[in-house]
Known about the structure:
This protein is α/β, with parallel strands linked by helices. It has helices spanning 31-39, 43-49, 87-103, 123-137, 164-189, 197-211, 220-226, 229-235, 289-304, 349-362, 376-382, 394-407, 440-449, 484-496, and strands at 2-7, 17-22, 60-64, 73-78, 108-111, 154-159, 214-218, 243-250, 259-263, 265-269, 309-319, 331-333, 339-341, 368-372, 387-391, 411-413, 431-432, 457-461, 467-468, 478-479. It contains 14 helices and 20 strands. A hairpin with a 5-residue loop joins β12 and β13 (339-341). It is elongated.
Amino acid sequence: MEIKAVIGDITQIEADALVVNLFEETKQPDGATAAVDKALDGAVSQLINQGEVKGKPGEVTIIHTLGKLPARIVAVAGLGKREDFNLDKVRRVAGDFSRSLRKLNCHKVATILHGAGTGSIEPQDSAKAITEGSLLGLYNFTRYKKPEYKEIAQMLIIADSTQHSAVSHGIENGKIMAEATATARDMVNEPANQMTPTRMAEIAKEIATKYNLEFKVFDSRDMKPMGMGALLGVASGSSQPPKLITLGYKGNPDSQDTAGFLGKGVTFDSGGISIKPSNGMGEMKDDMAGGATVMAALAAIAQLKLKINVTAIIPAVENLPSGNALKPGDILTAMNGKTIEIISTDAEGRLILADALSYAVKQKLSPLVDLATLTGACRVALGTGYSGLFSNNQQLANEVIKAADKTGEKLWQMPLPEEYKEQNKSVIADIKNTGNRYGGAITAALFLAEFIADTPWVHIDIAGTASSDKESGYIVKGATGTGVRTLAELALLLAKQGGLV
């Protein structure tokens, strides 16, 4: 969809649909909505008085103009309560009205800058949020299925002459963020027979070529002398060869400081010998969401041309049972020399990340941020609305939370209590790969902490947020691409402060 800023009178814009808005409990429309109401002979006011337009979040009321305006229809989008309004509400509103108008065969849509008036949101930020919300809300994965509706071809964001430049800049940045998120969604939505470790490496190479990134991939022949016994152990049950993929962005060649973004890339997780129940196992194609996220984030960071150095590391494997598969009771040796007793082969993500984190430390990357669909326990604890955040460095944690707040991707910081390490202790090895059933997300994070040395580090468990079973706002069914925009915003924050934590 083409999105561009236009200068014009809202009542004179030619389009299939014109979008205005209303806060909840508004008795009389104002601003652009009032201008449209006047042109429609008070139709909006009448619907407010009749209780048909309430301004509630997610509400999109369609009014046919019957020739009173150049636009065929007017959509009145509900903004919710004025005191609760924020930038993420703009994204959600844009996602909701875009899907509604697509169903009505609208190919050209014009919208006002939501929140830029009484909502006190800067025009550039509003334009960026509208762009992100619309593109993400209209996202469809249609490689294997014919789309149900024709897509909206063009969206016009109406601005005045003083706003045009800022709005255009906001649109450009919003497109970068949304398209990168869509890249991650595409990867996660692919079936596991297509999205193999080898295919992940191919896509990383395509991203590197397109955005001039450094690219390197290690296979099992490289990993053995590197000592990556944990990663190779997980991969041993599958005929799909494992890959350790790296992408490097050098936006500040005058500095040696480089941040590390790591993502779990289990392209299918059967649980291995500790096999999962068959019900819902098909969803385990999304176990590479962390890897897809960091790859897509590097694409966004490169397009934003941020003055920062970032390396993405993606350990990619398939976890299957076979005669060669890892078994409960086995002992593996990770790259940093720690021995690991295997209690469950279904606790495989932390094993491949152990070697990836060890490699990142050896490369002197700092700070480190990893994203992983790591534990069902985190989903139980926080549901599907929040990702869990764990950190050994509060300053870095605060920066990540600040970045997430800007994107609307919700994080909840969880504790890393020293006494919980007891659950990970092994009698016959340095550490075991899972504790008991209680506090599972915490003990998994504590396991990862064994492989970061003293490096500032944040672990984000996206098990509950990587996929959605319903659509709402700019979230659609299937992969969400959560974390892409947060990582890009984090890189922007770190670049602005001129140094890394």
